[in-house]
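Attaching the record inline, Q. Sequence:
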Amino acid sequence: MLHEKKDDSNLWDMFDAAKAIRAFISGRSYQDYLSDRMLRGAVERYLEIVGEAAGRISRDLRNASS
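Structure, as predicted:
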């Protein structure tokens, strides 16, 4: 599979952000999430990181996985 070197970095950013989100919400209920502004902000920020990194994945890699 041919992909740009930046893809590795972007994939790592996505993976790392997903791990952080999982750690943030582990053992928490949905009500905890709703009532904790800092938790919501952290989860939302890391979801932004996932989205931003996903948007930078090369077209070659996107096409290879479909």
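Helices lie at 5-25, 30-35, 37-55, 59-64. The chain has a mean pLDDT of 93.

More tomorrow.
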